[in-house]
């Protein structure tokens, strides 16, 4: 399979199930306690940090990374994600639902700035005006 051409979406549920199967197949469920998984995840965050350590600022898209560094980056990001998904599962938290709810809470806590009238269309009644975002 050519990974670059595979545009299939990967769900958190797929990852959750695969991690559960992985642990069950090895009889590793006894090791996958919340505390162990949290520590394992933090260890992987450390490994992820090492990739960026001493590099100075890294620009968006990591254009200066060699091909093998990009692959390594994907591996460490995956380790963090997989332990996070597994940790959420063994804690009985639906990570997808919790994350969507948190995004909503974030939007309430940090409201987007209101657009000025100059950027509104829709007549004089301001309640019907469509707010246009300059970035759109
Ligand atoms: N008890 C374990 C051990 C590993 N894994 C899985 C989750 C991670 O995706 C990956 C972590 O494996 P390693 O501990 O071997 O870590 P690395 O892959 O980072 O190897 P290294 O630390 O040698 O770079 O394997 C797991 O689920 N449960």
From TrEMBL:
**Catalytic activity field:** dCTP + H2O = dCMP + diphosphate + H(+)
Q: Which InterPro entries match?
A: DCTPP, MazG-like_dom
* Main location group: cytoplasm
- Metal-binding: is it a keyword of this entry? yes
Compartments, as annotated in UniProt:
Cytoplasm, Cytosol
Query: Quick one: where's region Disordered?
Result: 116-136
Gene Ontology MF terms in the entry: dCTP diphosphatase activity; magnesium ion binding
Q: Which SUPFAM superfamilies match?
A: all-alpha NTP pyrophosphatases (SSF101386)
Compositional bias, Basic and acidic residues, is annotated for 126-136
Tell me a GO cellular component: cytosol
| Keyword set, alphabetical order | Cytoplasm, Hydrolase, Magnesium, Metal-binding
Could you give the subunit structure recorded for this chain? Answer: Homotetramer.
What is the protein's known function?
Answer: Hydrolyzes deoxynucleoside triphosphates (dNTPs) to the corresponding nucleoside monophosphates. Has a strong preference for dCTP and its analogs including 5-iodo-dCTP and 5-methyl-dCTP for which it may even have a higher efficiency. May protect DNA or RNA against the incorporation of these genotoxic nucleotide analogs through their catabolism.
Q: What is this protein called?
A: dCTP pyrophosphatase 1
Q: What is the source species?
A: Cardamine amara subsp. amara
């Amino acid at each position: 399979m050519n990974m670059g051409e595979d545009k299939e979406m990967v769900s958190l549920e797929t990852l959750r199930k695969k991690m559960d199967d992985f642990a069950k197949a090895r009889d590793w469920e006894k090791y996958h306690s919340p505390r162990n998984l949290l520590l394992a995840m933090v260890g992987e965050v450390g490994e992820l940090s090492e990739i960026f350590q001493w590099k100075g600022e890294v620009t968006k898209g990591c254009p200066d990374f060699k091909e093998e560094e990009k692959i390594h980056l994907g591996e460490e990001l995956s380790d963090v994600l997989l332990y996070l998904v597994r940790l959420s599962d063994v804690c009985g938290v639906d990570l997808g639902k919790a994350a969507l709810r948190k995004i909503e809470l974030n939007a309430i806590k940090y409201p987007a700035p209101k657009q000025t009238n100059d950027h509104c269309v829709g007549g004089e009644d301001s309640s019907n005006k469509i707010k246009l975002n300059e970035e759109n």
